[in-house]
Predict the structure.
Amino acid sequence: MNRRKFISRTAFTSAGIGMASVIPSKIWAAETAPSDSLNVALIGCRSMGFGDLEQHLSNPGVNCVALCDIDEEILNSRAAEVKTRFNQTPKLYKDFRKMLEQNDIDAVIIGTPDHWHCLLTVYALQAGKDVYVEKPMANTIEECNIMVRAAKQYNRIVQVGQQQRSGFIFQKAIEMIKSASVGNIRKINIWANFNYGAGSPIVPDEQVPAGVDFDMWLGPAPQRSFNRSRFHGMWRMFWDYGGGLVSDWGVHLLDIALWAKDIKQGPEKILVYAGHTYPEKRARETFDTMSVSFPGSNFVINYDVTAGIQNGPYNMPYGIAFIGDKATIVADRSKLQVYPEWDEDAKKNKVEEYIYSEGKESHGEHALNFIECVKTRKAPNCPPEAGRAAALYVHAANIAGRVGEPVLLWDEKQNRFTNSAAANELIVPKYREPWKLPV
Ligand SMILES: NC(=O)c1ccc[n+]([C@@H]2O[C@H](COP(=O)([O-])OP(=O)(O)OC[C@H]3O[C@@H](n4cnc5c(N)ncnc54)[C@H](O)[C@@H]3O)[C@@H](O)[C@H]2O)c1
């Protein structure tokens, strides 16, 4: 039996076990595939989702067979782009449920706002597809738990879009930390300061634009009238759909901190300042100013967010500083620098200086890693457990701010906070009918 057939058989068998009546339409590398091709579909085409699709399509053998968006204008213009740039003609859908019935889809990329991630992932897994889901893994803690369980139950590959895990810069930083070359890491400082986090100007509600299925955009979120400041791109500043700058950037940066410290679970303790200190009134519910500490046994992770400005420590709007005994490693997505400590006795630096600049992000490597894992059925660089842990850190911080609790204690086994009933109320989302939280 050659390797491709073997992959195909094992994938089919294991998928069949947990899936009761839902049989995958086709598994990647099945005998029916004439070549090593992979058919992908995209749900949510406007911005990052389309960027992810482009990265997938840049690899040989990857085809775009379907696009889905609730906004006709976006759907049509992205379809035209796929045709011109990749010479492919995907089928077009406004309703993802119809799209998931398309038999030749192997993997689904999810690029919708966060409040849709859980449902779409679970539906796609149930339809036998592998999933690349954008970060944060979901908009609530319980949805993340469900997604971890669903990926296991349906035995599919799920890659969370925390692409920093696939890039050289952060892999190099982790290698330095794990080899203890910069000494013991006692503190990890993370920051994210962006103008957009302050929200957009306040505008009145209006009629739903032609060609937009707004009810489907809202999905499980509460019913409300249409307002542009909560719609494309800017939804991330409203609790029903996103978590603000804290989660938008936090999952990326905290993910690396957790990786460095081998943390795969939620934080035991969360210390939070959360405020609205930006001078101008903007369309936003999420906090514009936050300082969060996650104390560990012999180290601390600090996360600092200031929306409405665009600079920070080391002259970087966002970044991560690993403070070790012998040196501090400072990194963002395009560069890494080691700042050595001075050894007074030896009259020299405790470690070598190191500066590396790459000048590009790692979406391409992350997509490639997903493609490879779909083929090999190996765990991807950012599996659901890692997506959940990072999301839990940021959701816990936001929850502390929302309920006005400066200290929250998390019990991982019980999946709840032990010192705040109000905080526990925000773990599980309340879905609007007819959508149901998957069980
Ligand atoms: N990995 C990264 O670096 C990175 C960067 C930016 C955004 N993101 C993530 O990507 C996701 C999308 O963010 P964005 O900035 O592209 O948002 P966006 O608002 O620009 O695009 C979202 C798209 O999803 C569509 N959509 C919404 N509900 C839908 C549904 N039910 N069915 C089909 N289409 C639907 C919208 O019409 C829109 O076209 C978010 O989860 C965000 O956090 C990740």
